Amino acid sequence: MQGMRSEASVLHLDLDAFFAAVEQRDKPSLRGRPVVVGGTGGRGVVSTASYEARAYGARSAMSTAEARRRCPPGTAFLGGRFAAYSVTSRVVMDLLRELSPLVEQVSVDEAYVDLAAGDHDLSVAGLTALARDLKERIHAATGGVRGSVGIGSSKTMTKIGSELDKPDGLLVVPAGSELDVLHPLPVRSLPGVGPATGDRLSAVGVRTVGDLHERSLTDLVALVGQAHGTGLFRLARALDDRPVVPDREAKSVSAERTYATDLTDLGRLQSEIRWLADRVVARLQKEGTAGRTVTLKFRRYDFTTLTRSQTLPQPVDDARTVTDVATRLLAGIDRTGGVRLLGVGVSALATYVQGDLFAPDEAPVVIDTEEDEEETPAPQSRSWHPGQDVAHAEMGSGWVWGSGLGRVTVRFEGPLTPPGPVRTYAVDDPALVPAEPPDWRGTEDQKSRS
Amino acid sequence: MKFRVAREVLSDAVAWTARSLPPRPSVPVLAGILLEVQGASLSVSGFDYEVSARAEVDVSSTEDGRTLVPGRLLAEIVRALPPHPVDVVAEGARLAISCGNARFSLPTLPVEDYPSLPSLPSTAGVVDSDAFAEAVGQVAVAAGRDDTLPMLTGVRLEIEDDRVTLAATDRYRLAVREFAWRPEVSGLSAAVLVPARTLADAAKTLTSGPEVVLSLSSGGAGEGILGLSGKDRQTTTRLLDAEFVKYRAIMPNESASHALLPVGAFTDAAKRVALVAERGTPLRCEFTPGQVTLRAGGTDDEGQAEERCDVEFDGDPLTIGFNPTFLLDGLASVHTERARMDFTSALKPAVLSGHEEPAEDGAPRPGSYRYLIMPVRLPG
């Protein structure tokens, strides 16, 4: 059984309430107040809650409706602005790459860094100084986003470390002291131990990682199965030799949508599949990849979820083929009762694509013309979502505070202004247009506006 | 039924007929081979409602008759017989076969339940049997094997007076071959889609005589039949009831560059380099004046290979990727010493064709063959 590194040279960074932090940076009137970012529709789910909102019990993955019940009036419920998050994320990832060439980005707000591949002082004091400096530079470069850093001898240790001291945390676990840190922790704090496994372990008296350590491999395998049992056995001993892999390649590309009302109409389902396939293919093409396996994910009205997939003889990256295969897969599913969620994915990715003699000539993947206009469930051009960046001909830059009944309310402020004024317009006011995310690093335009 | 026949003659006829027996017959009698003796002639037939095969051989017979025997078993027995004359006698519900010191007694199947074979449709024309076998082989290689699109499993057969055009595609490559024939009536025009595997099999095994007669009934709604008769053998196949793609529209009519490849040397090099190309990964061909460099593999956990081959190349340097199987299939089908490959761009179909060496009398070889390969788009 492979062990771990003999020195604490893996760093894990997890940005704190990242989406909410970017919102609070760009919307000064929300600083210090509860902010919930996520789906704001009938079945939306919380992506991120600010620490102010967490104090009221709002959590990631909770339904937005539940978060609304828990949070006080005045809580901002915003749809996401992924362009803004991604610009900010890139700034952070660039700072990490200055530390080491080996940076494994796990998601937009989380990454591992292999410090052994950089030239660093790996003593506890050296690592603490490095982490403190990194956190300060992230805060400065992002205009206020904070992150928690864990440093240890393995990915698992560093992830647990950054989690333990959140938010704005810093924990260095020196090599050799892993078990001292791990054993007092509840088993639920281990990655991969959810409520189900937690309950099973607790039923046999295993509550802490220390309890887990006392169990034999045979016991654990009998309890939770071969793979999971072996994993837990290793985790309890801090055994984790997974390397930091830069630019980890995506294994699949997918898109899915949850519907406000269950879909039953076959024509509508087919147009939804086409819509999802277009998005998946656009991403495949952007990354220059293609895949051989097309998967359709299907969640029924009663939450039963099934997936069907078909593997093709050649990798594909054209929307027509993905749509055709996914539609064929749909035909084999019992749709009685309606569909709550549909997803289309492409996996078995390859960087080469066998051309198709009969594909339309160099078809660019854009959403098709008129035909799709009618069928695409995309919002109408004049709909505004809460949190969206807008610009007004006279008032300048701002964001959508809310809309409804033909009106849209906008607060005019930006990352470099004090909290600004609120104005209400007709939704189709020609002076109001969608805008790019504001630049927190300061431009003349934003500085000159009061 | 009682006859005597030469062992080789019988085993050839039975083996040929047994090829078209269905592996999993929908009704038991279809697993049978029908033996019919009339005068000095024995016919050996098989039929599965899609394909029929019928071979005729000369025998010395003392009693006419017909009997249906399990086909595969008969084929295995006949193939294994010693080199002596074979005596076959129907004895009630069994068939006795004796040859040298060997004796077999086979159960028979109810011959009255056996469907009658389709009669040959009216003759459409006549083609040289070797030329036909070559043309069909060159084209059928590009047909698809995936039954979900029946159109792609067929060979398109187009007749336009004294020219026949065959075409097949699996959507990644397209093979087209034209040849001359003698139509039964002048001005004949027809286009049908024939199951590729059946056609390839038939054409290959009908070369014992100089000519093959094509007969055609293109009744609609899946009723169409193609008949092929060579010396002592005839076969029919049901036509595919599907439209074929408008393949002429995708044949490039100009090229930006072309290469002349020594087929043998280039094929050997491509086969070697392709050894490291795992499942469907491309073979990169980098063409520069005077040579092509073939590469495959490349990522850290794969093998890598590279080989240079001298070719004539005219045009701007070009790097193009191909599925190695598709490229090798085409190279094996041109049947010339050198092959010409025409390119438009690295993303457009490349056209492989035979390069006719100038003949002494300057006469062009009849026929034409083109094999289009859609390239694999390379990363980067």
UniProtKB/TrEMBL annotation, chain A:
Binding-site residues, Mg(2+): 14, 109
Keywords of this entry: Cytoplasm, DNA damage, DNA repair, DNA replication, DNA-binding, DNA-directed DNA polymerase, Magnesium, Metal-binding, Mutator protein, Nucleotidyltransferase, Transferase
Coiled-coil stretches noted in the UniProt entry, renumbered to this chain: none
Catalyses which reaction(s): DNA(n) + a 2'-deoxyribonucleoside 5'-triphosphate = DNA(n+1) + diphosphate
Residue span, UmuC domain: 10-194
GO molecular function: damaged DNA binding; DNA-directed DNA polymerase activity; magnesium ion binding
Subcellular localization: Cytoplasm
Site description Substrate discrimination, residues in chain: 19
Example of a GO biological process term: DNA repair
Essential cofactor(s): Mg(2+)
Enzyme class: transferase
Predominant localisation class: cytoplasm
Annotated region (Disordered), positions in chain: 369-389, 412-450
Free-text comment on the cofactor: Binds 2 magnesium ions per subunit.
GO cellular component: cytosol
Biased composition (Basic and acidic residues): 438-450
Enzyme Commission designation: 2.7.7.7
Active site, UniProt feature: 110
Keyword Nucleotidyltransferase among record annotations: yes
Family membership: Belongs to the DNA polymerase type-Y family.
HAMAP family, per the entry: DNApol_IV
Known role: Poorly processive, error-prone DNA polymerase involved in untargeted mutagenesis. Copies undamaged DNA at stalled replication forks, which arise in vivo from mismatched or misaligned primer ends. These misaligned primers can be extended by PolIV. Exhibits no 3'-5' exonuclease (proofreading) activity. May be involved in translesional synthesis, in conjunction with the beta clamp from PolIII.
Subunit-structure text: Monomer.
Name used for this protein in its record: DNA polymerase IV
Species in which this protein is naturally found: Klenkia brasiliensis
Classification of source organism: Bacteria, Bacillati, Actinomycetota, Actinomycetes, Geodermatophilales
Gene that this sequence comes from: dinB
From TrEMBL, chain B:
GO molecular function, one term: 3'-5' exonuclease activity
GO BP term, example: DNA strand elongation involved in DNA replication
DNA polymerase III beta sliding clamp central domain boundaries: 127-244
Keywords: Cytoplasm, DNA replication, DNA-binding, DNA-directed DNA polymerase, Nucleotidyltransferase, Transferase
Record-linked InterPro entries: DNA_clamp_sf (IPR046938), DNA_polIII_beta (IPR001001), DNA_polIII_beta_C (IPR022635), DNA_polIII_beta_cen (IPR022637), DNA_polIII_beta_N (IPR022634)
Upper lineage: Bacteria, Bacillati, Actinomycetota, Actinomycetes, Geodermatophilales
NCBIfam families on file: dnan
Pfam family, one: DNA_pol3_beta
Domain DNA polymerase III beta sliding clamp C-terminal: 249-357
Organism annotation: Klenkia brasiliensis
Subunit structure of this chain's protein: Forms a ring-shaped head-to-tail homodimer around DNA.
Span of domain DNA polymerase III beta sliding clamp N-terminal: 1-118
Main function: Confers DNA tethering and processivity to DNA polymerases and other proteins. Acts as a clamp, forming a ring around DNA (a reaction catalyzed by the clamp-loading complex) which diffuses in an ATP-independent manner freely and bidirectionally along dsDNA. Initially characterized for its ability to contact the catalytic subunit of DNA polymerase III (Pol III), a complex, multichain enzyme responsible for most of the replicative synthesis in bacteria; Pol III exhibits 3'-5' exonuclease proofreading activity.
Family: Belongs to the beta sliding clamp family.
GO CC annotation: cytoplasm; DNA polymerase III complex
Highest taxon in the source lineage: Bacteria
Subcellular localization(s) per the UniProt record: Cytoplasm
Name used for this protein in its record: Beta sliding clamp
